Amino acid sequence: MFIVVYEFEIKDGTEASFREAWLGVTKAIYEHCGSLGSRLHTSDRPNILVGYAQWPNREQWEKDHQLADERYQKARNEMRSCLVRSTTIYKLEVSDDYLQPNLASNC
Asked: What's CA 80's distance to the chain center, in Å?
């Protein structure tokens, strides 16, 4: 599995719009480009959000994913209009994995 971590600095007052647009972009990438999905996180820094995207492998992520879907384009443009900057922080290969889909029973 291949992971990409992004940092987004957004303009004041745009968090709700950014999050909605991010979801539209992420859904389209999942549906049409072979990603395994993504998570968006708030941080302890104002106007900084962190995205974590999963891919089956680096090769799938590196493919040229040109989407003509109108909803994707609209969401992508809205997302960009909210940004001060977007940075790819890490490109990671999973070496060990113990993320669990369910909570363990309480001890």
From this structure: 13
